[in-house]
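Question:
When you can, review this sequence-structure pair and walk me through the tokens.
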Amino acid sequence: MLAALLGSMGMAWAQAWAQVPALTGDAGRYVDQAYQAYAQKDFARALQQARAARKLRPDVVRLQELVLMAETAAEQTNTPKAAEPSAQQRAQQLAQQSYEKVMQSRQDASLIPWARSFIWQALQYDKQPLQWHVLAVRLALVQGQWGDAVFGADAGLQLHPGEPALVQAKAFALQQKGQARQAFALLKQMLGTNGLSADDRVSLLLQAADTALEAGQFEQGLAEVRQLQALQVPGAKERQQLLKAGVALPLAMPAPELGCNEQAICVARYALDIEQGLFNAAQVAAQKQQWPLVQTVAGQLVQLKSTRGLYWQWLIGAQLGQGMTQAARTSAQLAMKALDAKSSGLNAAEMAQIAQIAQIAGQS
């Protein structure tokens, strides 16, 4: 059993090593020596060289994973055969270690690679548990390892086809990789299946609508929004207006929250606070002086919360930036009616500036 385990781990080492970014100098030499030592089953030396490379290049996350694999291999060779647990027992032990590291990572994020390594190893012993696949993908998303998240989701979907949690995670990772259209198509396909719970359907619809905004697939996204409106989901109206405006927006979509209960029922819950998403988009566009985009987003924000002064500032500023003085004057007049000086979030000077625009911009 030990020989088989080390053989599978050797393949894992080779796969992980192959994904390490090209390294030069001493770091590259240490990685080469670590790989050669591992191939020769000299795990102590492999560990020594991997640690040396990691010390020189702590910015390369993969090197930490190589260190973890070398440590595990070294520990396995020192374990008496008589004490070796069964494959199922070892899988459970590794999964438990992963869950423990996840809990500890709430105070120390540097433990996440350990959690990823343990759950990945558990899946080498037992590929069946859905909750382990979901955890592996979840941790990849946390670390922004989009390629690993797609790979992990695909591995899980081979054994658990049509699992909404894995589909949503894969779609998000694809979107982050710049493949928003593929992500949207995947979500649409999932929405066409039978047996979805009401909560799963809402989560998929929200993610699909926002992915459509990112991908510029406005007409297709409207179909999802209409279903959201029929279900009276908050934020549906705002999404519909944005899709009808026909402007692809950088909404900084959040990753869906993945989780499983004790019965191994797993879910993904996507939830974007549309106001916060629009706020982020407007802020970025304003910094880049992308006035048409600022005008579109700020226009939605003032409809959503007309009492916040900053949103009116963005709208008026975007209109002035495009030479739209009459529109800016009208917006300033509306702002003066909607804003309360004490609760608008603006100081006296900023309020006075809006009042001045409301009067002067029309005198031409």
About this structure: The first helix runs from residue 2 to 18. The beta strands are 257-260, 266-269. The longest strand covers residues 257-260. Residues 1-11 have pLDDT under 50 and may be disordered.
